[in-house]
Design goal:
The complex is a heterodimer.
Chain A (H helix, E strand, L loop, with lengths): L4 E2 L8 H4 L5 E3 L6 E3 H6 L15 H8 L6 E3 L3 E3 L11 H12 L5 E8 L2 E8 L10 H17 L3 E7 L7 H20 L4 E10 H4 L8 E4 L5 E2 L3 H8 L10 H6 L5 E2 L5 H11 L5
Parallel strand pairs in A: 7-8, 8-9, 9-10, 9-11, 10-12
Antiparallel strand pairs in A: 1-4, 2-3, 4-6, 6-7
Chain B lengths: L7 H17 L4 H23 L3 H8 L7 H8 L1 E6 L11 E8 L2 E8 L5 H6 L7 H16 L4 E7 L6 H5 L2 H11 L7 E10 H5 L6 E5 L3 E3 L3 H8 L8 H8 L3 H6 L5 E3 L10 H20 L3 H13 L4 E3 L4
Parallel strand pairs in B: 3-4, 4-5, 5-6, 5-7, 6-8
Antiparallel strand pairs in B: 1-2, 2-3
Helix pairs in contact in B: 1-2, 3-11, 6-8, 10-11
The complex binds zinc ion.
C-alpha cells in the first residue's frame, strides 16, 4: 500500500534559510532592494527585473494545486548507499544533512491533486536537496508518478529543478534516466498528456530524460537549462560563452520549449492546456 | 607499440626478449635458455600486473589508443556493410556510425560511436563524442530497423556527448531524452555491447536494449573519473582520478554486481588490443547467442521485458512509519 497523507504544512518553511534574515532582501539579478513581504506577494519574483527567486516544492504545490493540497505518495522512500560512496563526506551523511536542512526526505515530492478541479499526477523537485539530483529515489518516485497517471488515466505534471543525475549512486543514477523515459513511452502511447515545467536550474541527466519529454514544455524566465555544464563547455571549447547561453530564452529561440511563463501565470496556463489536451480513450 | 605507465615493466621485458631473440637467431644455446627464463618471468609479470589492475588502470585500458573501435568490429564480424549517413535534419555526425550488415547470415543494423586512430581521424570523429544529430541519426536507424524487422547491434565507445555551444543549440538533452523513450518502442531485439568507454548520458543515449554486455576492461558510469574528481576535489583533481574511479565503481565487474549488465565478455591478458581476433570471435559469439534467444520472443513481450528490465533498476529504502 502506498503511504497516503496530506502534504500541506508538512514541510517547514525553508525560505528563512535561503534568504538573508531581515525584512529586506536584494535581488540576485538586478540588485534591487526588495521588501520581503512584497516579494512574497509577487510569487518570489523581483518586481523590477522579473528575476524568479528559487522557491520550494511546497510553494509550487500552493501555487498550482487547488487549495494548495497534494495527497502525497511515496514520501517514505529514502536513499540507500549502494556504492558506499565517500568524498569529503559519506553519502548517507550528505543525505542526512539534506534531510535536516530542508525538512524533506528527498529531492522530489510526488502525489495527486487537482488543478481547477481537474485531477493530475503531480511531482515537484527541490534543488535544495543535494542539488535536486536524481538518484534511485527520485527515479523511482518519478516512475511511480507516471504509473499513477497511467493507472488513473490522469495528466502528469512534473516541475523540475535539478543539476542532473546523482553522482553518489553512479551507474544506478544514470539508469534512472532510462527507467523514467521508458515509462514515458507508455504514457505517450496511451495519449495521456504530460506537461513538463522547467525551473532554475534544470540540466544534465534530468534535462536529458523526463524533463525534455513533455507533450508541452514550459520554462520559468531566465532559468538555466541544458545538457552540459558551463564549466565543462568552457574548458572544452576554450572560449567564453555567449550572454544568455543555456537560458530559458535561449531554449525558446532554438525551438526546445513551447513557451516561457511567469510564475504567477503557471496555474492558469497549465489549466488551459489541460482543457485542450484531454486524456484519449 | 604504445604502453601505459603501469605496463612499463612488461614492455621493458618484452623488448629485452625480442632483442635477445634477434641476437640469438639460431645461435648459442645459453641465450635460448635465457630467453626461456625471461619468457617465464614475463608471463608471471603479466599475470601479476594485469590480474591486479585497479579501476583507474582499467579505464586506461578502455582508452588504449590501440584498442579495437566500432568499425574494426563491424569489419571483423560482418559482411556487406552498407553505411547510412545523416539525420535528415541537420547533418551527418561522424562520431557515430550507422549501417546495415550481415552477421553470419543474419541481417542486422549496426550502430556505434567511432573514435579515430590518428590525430586527423580523431578530429574527424570528434573523439567519439556525438552531437544531437548523431543521436538523431541513430534514432533514424533504429526506426528503420523497427519497420523492416532487423535486429539491432549497438557498440558503445564514447567519452561523453559533446559539450559545446552548437550541441546545446541543437538540443543535446532533447536528442538523448527522445532516444531513451523511443528505444523502448522499437519492436526488434536490441543487443548492446560496451566495447570501450561508456560515459554517462552520451553512452546511454544509444544504450537502451534487451541484453547489455560489457567487455572486461570497458567502463560505464554516470560521469568519468576526471569529471567526478573535478567536482568533488577541486584543489587537486589530477591526484584523485584513482579515488574517483573507485568511488564511482566504474568497471564492468561493478556494473555486473549492480545488476546493470547481463554478461561480461572476457578480454585477453592486457586488454582487447593484445589479441583483437580473439576478442572479435567472442563478441560475435555473445551477440549471436543473444540474438538467437531474443528472436524467439514476440515483439509485444520483448517490449514488456525491456521495460521491466529498466523499471526495476534502483536501490532505495522504505522508511517505516513512526
Ligand atoms: Zn531584480
Amino acid at each position: 500500500m502506498e503511504l497516503f497523507k496530506k502534504n500541506q504544512n508538512s514541510q517547514p518553511d525553508q525560505r528563512k534559510k535561503e534568504l538573508p534574515d531581515g525584512l529586506w532582501t536584494k535581488c540576485n539579478n538586478c540588485g534591487e532592494i526588495i521588501y520581503i513581504k512584497e516579494l512574497e506577494k509577487n510569487f518570489w519574483v523581483c518586481h523590477k527585473c522579473d528575476f524568479h527567486f528559487r522557491i520550494l516544492s511546497s510553494d509550487y504545490i500552493g501555487l498550482i494545486l487547488d487549495e494548495g493540497k497534494l495527497d502525497e505518495y511515496d514520501g517514505n522512500l529514502i536513499s540507500a548507499d549502494p556504492l558506499e560512496f565517500k568524498d569529503s563526506k559519506r553519502y548517507p551523511d550528505r543525505v542526512k544533512g539534506a534531510i535536516k536542512n530542508t525538512g524533506l526526505k528527498e529531492a522530489i515530492v510526488c502525489g495527486c491533486g487537482t488543478i481547477d478541479t481537474k485531477p493530475v499526477s503531480f511531482a515537484v523537485m527541490n534543488f535544495g536537496f543535494v542539488g535536486g539530483s536524481m538518484g534511485s529515489v527520485v527515479g523511482e518516485k518519478v516512475a511511480r508518478s507516471i504509473e499513477r497517471s497511467l493507472e488513473k488515466r490522469i495528466p502528469l505534471i512534473i516541475i523540475s529543478a535539478s543539476g542532473g543525475a546523482r553522482m553518489q549512486e553512479g551507474i544506478l543514477s544514470l539508469m534512472q534516466m532510462a527507467k523514467t523515459s521508458s515509462l514515458l513511452a507508455l504514457l505517450y502511447d496511451q495519449k495521456i498528456p504530460y506537461i513538463s515545467v522547467l525551473t532554475n536550474p534544470t540540466t544534465a541527466g534530468v534535462m536529458a530524460s523526463y524533463a525534455s519529454l513533455g507533450d508541452i514544455i514550459i520554462a520559468e524566465p531566465q532559468a538555466l537549462l541544458g545538457f552540459a555544464g558551463q564549466r565543462v563547455i568552457k574548458q572544452t571549447i576554450g572560449q567564453d560563452l555567449p550572454k544568455g547561453f543555456q537560458s530559458s530564452e535561449f531554449f525558446l529561440e532554438h525551438g526546445f520549449i513551447d513557451f516561457i511563463c511567469h510564475r504567477r501565470d503557471l496555474k492558469k496556463q497549465i489549466s488551459s492546456l489541460l482543457n485542450y489536451l484531454k486524456v484519449q480513450d | 607499440m604504445q604502453y601505459l605507465d603501469f605496463e612499463k615493466p612488461i614492455f621493458e621485458l618484452e623488448k629485452k626478449i625480442s632483442e635477445l631473440k634477434e641476437f640469438a637467431d639460431g645461435e648459442k644455446l645459453e641465450i635460448s635458455s635465457e630467453i626461456k627464463i625471461l619468457t617465464a618471468k614475463l608471463e608471471r609479470l603479466q599475470r601479476e600486473i594485469y590480474k591486479k589492475m585497479n579501476r583507474w588502470q582499467r579505464v586506461k585500458i578502455a582508452r588504449h589508443p590501440a584498442r579495437p573501435y566500432t568499425l574494426d568490429y563491424i569489419e571483423a564480424l560482418a559482411t556487406d556493410f552498407i553505411e547510412l549517413h545523416g539525420d535528415r535534419g541537420y547533418g551527418d555526425d561522424k562520431a557515430i556510425v550507422v549501417g546495415l550488415a550481415t552477421l553470419e547470415g543474419r541481417r542486422v543494423l549496426f550502430v556505434g560511436q567511432q573514435k579515430g586512430r590518428d590525430v586527423k581521424q580523431r578530429q574527424f570523429r570528434n573523439f567519439g563524442m556525438c552531437h544531437p544529430e548523431g543521436y538523431r541519426k541513430a534514432l533514424r536507424g533504429f526506426q528503420l530497423a523497427d519497420r523492416f524487422k532487423l535486429p539491432i547491434v549497438i557498440l558503445i565507445d564514447t567519452p561523453g556527448a559533446y559539450p559545446g555551444i552548437e550541441a546545446e543549440e541543437r538540443g543535446q538533452a532533447e536528442a538523448i531524452a527522445r532516444n531513451l523513450r523511443e528505444m523502448c518502442r522499437i519492436r526488434v531485439p536490441i543487443v548492446v555491447v560496451v566495447i570501450g568507454e561508456g560515459a554517462s548520458g552520451g553512452a546511454l543515449g544509444i544504450g537502451l536494449g534487451d541484453k547489455i554486455f560489457m567487455l572486461e576492461n570497458s567502463w560505464y558510469s554516470v560521469i568519468s573519473p576526471e569529471g567526478c574528481a573535478a567536482i568533488l576535489w577541486k584543489e587537486n583533481p589530477q591526484e584523485k582520478y584513482e579515488t574517483a574511479a573507485d568511488a564511482l565503481r566504474v568497471t564492468a565487474q561493478d556494473a555486473m554486481g549492480l545488476g546493470i549488465v547481463d554478461k561480461i565478455i572476457p578480454e585477453p591478458l592486457g586488454g582487447a588490443h593484445r589479441d583483437p581476433g580473439k576478442v572479435m570471435d567472442l563478441v560475435r559469439k555473445y551477440i549471436l547467442g543473444a540474438l538467437e534467444e531474443l528472436e524467439r520472443i514476440e515483439p509485444a513481450e520483448l517490449l514488456a521485458k525491456r521495460l521491466a528490465k529498466y523499471r526495476k533498476i534502483g536501490v532505495f529504502e522504505i522508511e517505516k512509519e513512526n
